[in-house]
Amino acid sequence: MSARAGCLETGLAVVGAGYWGPNLVRTALATPALRLEWLCDLDERRARAVLGRYATVGVTTSYDRVLSDPAVQAISIATPAVTHYDLVRAALEAGKHVLVEKPLTSSAAEAEKLVALAHDAGLVLMCDHTYCYTPAVRRIRELISGGEVGEVQFVDSIRVNLGIVQADVDVLWDLAPHDLSILDFVLPANVAPVAVAAHTSDPVGAGRACLAHLSVWLSTGALAHVHVNWLSPTKIRTTVIGGSRRTIVWDDMNPPARLAVHDRGVDRAPLDPVTPDERRHALMNYRIGDICIPALPEEEALMSVMAEFASAIAEQRTPLTDGAAGLRVLNVLEAASASADRGGDRVQVQARRSGD
Amino acid sequence: MSARAGCLETGLAVVGAGYWGPNLVRTALATPALRLEWLCDLDERRARAVLGRYATVGVTTSYDRVLSDPAVQAISIATPAVTHYDLVRAALEAGKHVLVEKPLTSSAAEAEKLVALAHDAGLVLMCDHTYCYTPAVRRIRELISGGEVGEVQFVDSIRVNLGIVQADVDVLWDLAPHDLSILDFVLPANVAPVAVAAHTSDPVGAGRACLAHLSVWLSTGALAHVHVNWLSPTKIRTTVIGGSRRTIVWDDMNPPARLAVHDRGVDRAPLDPVTPDERRHALMNYRIGDICIPALPEEEALMSVMAEFASAIAEQRTPLTDGAAGLRVLNVLEAASASADRGGDRVQVQARRSGD
Amino acid sequence: MSARAGCLETGLAVVGAGYWGPNLVRTALATPALRLEWLCDLDERRARAVLGRYATVGVTTSYDRVLSDPAVQAISIATPAVTHYDLVRAALEAGKHVLVEKPLTSSAAEAEKLVALAHDAGLVLMCDHTYCYTPAVRRIRELISGGEVGEVQFVDSIRVNLGIVQADVDVLWDLAPHDLSILDFVLPANVAPVAVAAHTSDPVGAGRACLAHLSVWLSTGALAHVHVNWLSPTKIRTTVIGGSRRTIVWDDMNPPARLAVHDRGVDRAPLDPVTPDERRHALMNYRIGDICIPALPEEEALMSVMAEFASAIAEQRTPLTDGAAGLRVLNVLEAASASADRGGDRVQVQARRSGD
Amino acid sequence: MSARAGCLETGLAVVGAGYWGPNLVRTALATPALRLEWLCDLDERRARAVLGRYATVGVTTSYDRVLSDPAVQAISIATPAVTHYDLVRAALEAGKHVLVEKPLTSSAAEAEKLVALAHDAGLVLMCDHTYCYTPAVRRIRELISGGEVGEVQFVDSIRVNLGIVQADVDVLWDLAPHDLSILDFVLPANVAPVAVAAHTSDPVGAGRACLAHLSVWLSTGALAHVHVNWLSPTKIRTTVIGGSRRTIVWDDMNPPARLAVHDRGVDRAPLDPVTPDERRHALMNYRIGDICIPALPEEEALMSVMAEFASAIAEQRTPLTDGAAGLRVLNVLEAASASADRGGDRVQVQARRSGD
Predict the structure, then answer these.
(1) Do B260 and D289 count as a contact with CB atoms less than 8 A apart?
(2) Considering A297, A329, B114, D278, which has the largest number of Cβ atoms within 10 A of its Cβ?
(3) pTM as predicted
């Protein structure tokens, strides 16, 4: 490859050809700024099946071969979470930029080390927090940062469906990273989770929690709640963000109206008095205005993830969802697991140094 | 009125002409087995406005006058919860049957006394757990008792809308009685709540909780969850009951398909092995079958409440939702309030003697 | 009744205690400006059942008695359509104002006579085009008259459900009056139906059309279409009004979002040329903007009908939906029936003198 | 290629890299029984962009080169309809099996010739009536052929959205082929369209019909109706098939409940008599039973199209949607265009010999 092309393209290897890997391959193939060099998996046959017989992309079972290939500047990792730490560390140590599936690692302590390693090496460490790249979540972030929502009063996030009981993680670690990374992405920078309580259940004897209710207290005092469930017969992906000025309802299963912005306001009003006692109370006055359903482009989020990864590498900058974001999610997840282990006690979220 | 007519009809007084009273009046007027004698309210003008200028029903501000009227055999009470205990006790002591709005009283201790009083006097004490009389909830009860659902694995109940911040109660005491009374009604008799944890929030400065997440552990180990919220811009009334054989989704805001019975089953299956480590794990196998939406009559639940009240009086029997049911709901509510006061700690539900 | 009260109240008789009559009675009882004097029906028992045993309203089987009662200034008629002409004429001749169910009469010729009769007598003749009084339809009218919709490009109205096969009318005369009266109400005054074609079917052997597709050409050249069907298993009441600036979707079965205003525009744009041939064509450019769901009050339309009737009488003015509106609807209905009789031929709409 | 591989694989060329061609390429690449040899388009750059830089598939602008390649046994054509006749004829004359986009050709006369040509040459001529390969439509066909629906009483098909105003065809020829091919596929073999009437409109000045209402009379006397519209702000793809025993509602925009089977029946019943006149009428009795939402696999229809094409070639048999099906659709389309040209007159459908 010529030097000039090297300025424009980043050589990429995808590691892991399981559930998510094929999506990384497909979107990498369609991203002009990336040049897919390798698909690496322990199971060569599976990797070949993902690529099909027409693609001119290398297949290998050797991670070392990938890391030692000078045509590879970046690695995208979609393996089980428990393997992330070793794979990411090796990639960073080999001087490769890394895009890694959520959760970043199996523990916040490991994540902290990777963040530091990437920082010191001047490499991009990006978390594939895919939902943050959907047009809906980007718009939510704008609506909050632009002041249209006002102060966030509550968050209610539901992510349930008849999902696969994972072998290596419980439902909290499988699904809640989506909700927590979205929360991290859309909330103002000065608002953060400070404590959590998690109630989990395994009613089918799967050996790990299959449903969880997670309460997350924010630094503002507001309460966010996340319900994740592998056993629901219906698929629901809804997040409500209640604000002092407007309330956002994001229903990802309703493409014609994914986002609805409710013009809603609350102020104090005197009670219509019924009894003398009630006259002493002041009540709230509700304003119910129009609902706006903003037009959103129908873009595939993972295409934007790939584009952001390539851009961050080319521009030598921090990506939108960097390792520090992945670490913040892990801080909440670890507190949630600790709470679940203690029967639902309220547990403080560790505020680890995230380098940013 | 002749003695013979007395056998067929029950003379009724409605007490309270506020939010719910007009509905009691309207349905009582339309119930042949009831003869509405009085509408009693502290505010005579409000009571007259409820009845309109055409109705031949007495209006009074004197509860004593109602209690001393021999034409009145039954009282239906729709006043603030804090007044229930005194009003119900006086009615029972005057030998009147009583139908009372939820919650039965402000405390389980009071409710216990009323249940005992009614029992000793041989009078009907019925709670207006209106939702238990909807065709949907009746069908859910049948589906569970008939074994079609199998073992209840989880319950998720959401009751949110832009509601009125009540002057006398928080959102838990205002809305959760609906969900808890439904749970009490549909679960098998040998399954009961044993512990609760409640996380509440008042983000608008109303002086009381405006939203609450309530986790309820059942005696089987299953986890039920109730989300009640006065601040939601959208109205959601959905209850999912996950069972080992089928899962019920009740969406009360969707009249054409209020009830959906999902033919769903889970059993163990070997994992498609990816790595040697994963081979050690066994995973679940999901069966996704048809969904059945049973045809339900469109009957008004409160008409059925009135009919059940009249029948229980005429047949001298315990109504479907008796004082004991109201007491069981209060036992959970009190534990929920205690949990909320302690920041969400898990609190045992008192198993008070409920007389049944 | 004193003379002064007479200035404020109108004495009303409701005629017909069948399907719709009870709604007229209920709303009349709740309308302060009306004083319900009589419910008149050939079946006295049915009339008494509608009123219940508490109401102080007269019941009679004698229409003459109602007409001769000086306390009655107005008549509301809810009898089979075939009886409307005689009943309305008699009422007008007795000096009574009249509110009559749709369709105004069984033929446009009869309607023309009634309109003239009311006009000459200075009496209110109002059609109960109920839907025109819903907040949704009132808003649609405003959106069109205010220019927000632009030029109306097409209308598509669907009114289907598992309905009762009527004994006296086919589905066109039973259901299409709703759609046609709405169209008459919301379209600008200078736009009118000029021709229709109706395709009907009676697949269940009911002896009359049970479903119909009605194409209505407007004076602007735009095409409106109405689908009415008694045999649909699902209830659909949707009207789409496509405009050059915005398009309105009214879904009456979706209370949280009955009205959606789509910001949509079309203009010409060059085709992305694929073949030389295609380069010769110019294509359209579509703009897809936000959707606005306006907040609408949840008012019962029939209450507004009653209020409008009372106001028109008190103010001696033409009501919003007068006899002329009823006549215009009949002009289209008659043309539709003529088209159906001729196998779907396009039939011109008679432009009868409607007095306005 | 070896003779043995020839038994297993069919060499395919895709012609046309415009709107639909990329989908044919993608699914062909993923179909083991097909080996994609060429993508042919007049615009080489566009063809290369569709394939991307990794695919080992030939690109050519020469149709002759494709036809003369012995490794190509089959051609899949996705070019403008006006070019179909020449391209398909040349392919058949070159001994290639053909899969062609809808509509088969621009006229029934041309289609008739192609059907005969393919028949005489013993080659597969298949129409890509994609919707017929969806799990929903396959199930509808089974429900009708299995007798569960009973006699088809009416059909109502809506296919509207903000679509592209095509340069070469009006909305009837663009969208109605979908509905007509579905109708052809699901109706019993002895039921066929006998007459049509089409009302069309071009309210945006596009130079061709942008919306159309098409009434189709079936040989049983039942009425089917198709509404196609390029100007609708909302996307609706719903087909209702009313039967004497059950009614099917297919809502393709509602993945969790695409198909709903309503247990509905009608029989005669005496009218609840209101007036003596009405006593002479007999009315219908409605039975409203449960709704069943069958579990359907989420398979991509075009993958099934490709598999059927490959199977029909390998098994030397007529495909499910053969040229004769395409011809039957064209017979109705031509009658519809003739009707539209005559202002909506009812036009008989030509029953051309379709070879089957």
Answers:
(1) no
(2) A329
(3) 0.93
Closest Cβ–Cβ partner in A288, A293, A294 for C295: A288
- Tell me the C-alpha distance between D32 and D285, whole Å: 54
Q: Token pair 């897809």 is at which residue? A: C288
Contacting residues of B for A257, CB less than 8 Å apart: none
Does 3.30.360.10 match the CATH number of domain A132-298+331-348?
yes
Beta partners for residue C157, in sequence order: C226, C239
CATH topology of domain D3-129+302-322: Rossmann fold (3.40.50)
Neighbours of chain B (3+ CB pairs under 8 A): A, C, D
DSSP-assigned states of every residue in B266-302 = EEEEE---SSHHHHT-EEEEEEEEEEEE-------HH
Cα dihedral across residues C124, C127, C128, C130: positive or negative: negative
Question: What pLDDT score was predicted for residue B166?
Answer: 82
Q: Tell me: the pLDDT tens digits for A260-295?
A: 999 976 655 555 555 444 443 446 677 789 999 999
Query: Is the minimum CB–CB distance between A56 and chain D shorter than 8 Å?
Result: yes
In words, the CATH class of domain C132-300+331-348 is: alpha beta
All residues at 6 or more sequence positions from C67 whose CB lies less than 8 Å from its CB, including other chains: C75, C90, C91, C94, C96
Distance CA D345, CA D331 (A): 16
Distance of CA B53 to the CA centre of its chain: 33
Q: Which residue has the tokens 């995973």?
A: B283
Q: D238-277, pLDDT tens digit by residue?
A: 999 999 999 999 999 999 999 999 997 665 555 555 544 4
Question: Check: CATH 3.50.50.60 for B132-301+331-348?
Answer: no
pLDDT tens by residue, C5-20 = 445 799 999 999 999 9
- A227: chain B residues, CB-CB within 8 Å: 156, 225
Tell me the pLDDT tens digit for each residue of B304-314: 999 999 999 99
Q: Which two tokens stand for residue C217?
A: 């050409």
- Name the residue ranges covered by the structural domains of chain A: 3-131+302-321, 132-298+331-348
Query: In the numeric block, which tokens belong to residue C288?
Result: 């897809």
Per-residue model confidence (pLDDT) at position A124: 98
CATH homologous superfamily for the domain A3-131+302-321: NAD(P)-binding Rossmann-like Domain (3.40.50.720)
Band the pLDDT of C205: cuts 50, 70, 90: confident
Chain-centroid distance of CA D209 in Å reads: 20
What is d(CA A14, CA C326) in angstroms, rounded to the nearest whole number? Answer: 71
Contact B9, B34 (CB under 8 A): yes
Does A32 touch chain D if contact means CB atoms closer than 8 Å? no
> Are C54 and B52 a contacting pair at CB < 8 A?
no
A346 touches chain B (CB under 8 A): yes
Range with the lowest mean pLDDT among B155-164, C87-96, C132-141?
B155-164
Lowest mean pLDDT among A61-65, C24-28, D3-7: D3-7
Domain spanning C3-129+302-320: CATH superfamily: NAD(P)-binding Rossmann-like Domain (3.40.50.720)
CATH architecture of residue range(s) B3-125+302-316: 3-Layer(aba) Sandwich (3.40)
To test the contact with chain C by mutation, choose from D213, D227, D236, D345 the residue with the greatest count of C C-beta atoms within 10 A, namely D213
Under DSSP, the state recorded for A169 is: S
CB contact under 8 A, D293 and B289: no
B234 at A interface, C-beta within 8 A: yes
Q: Given CB atoms, is D234 within the 8 Å cutoff of chain A?
A: yes
Q: CB count, 10 Å around CB of B277? A: 13
Tens of pLDDT, residues D312-326: 999 999 999 999 999
Interchain pair A29, D54: CB under 8 A: yes
- Write down the residue that tokens 């790595």 correspond to: B275
Same fold, B3-125+302-316 and B132-301+331-348: no
β-sheet bridge partners, residue B128: B101
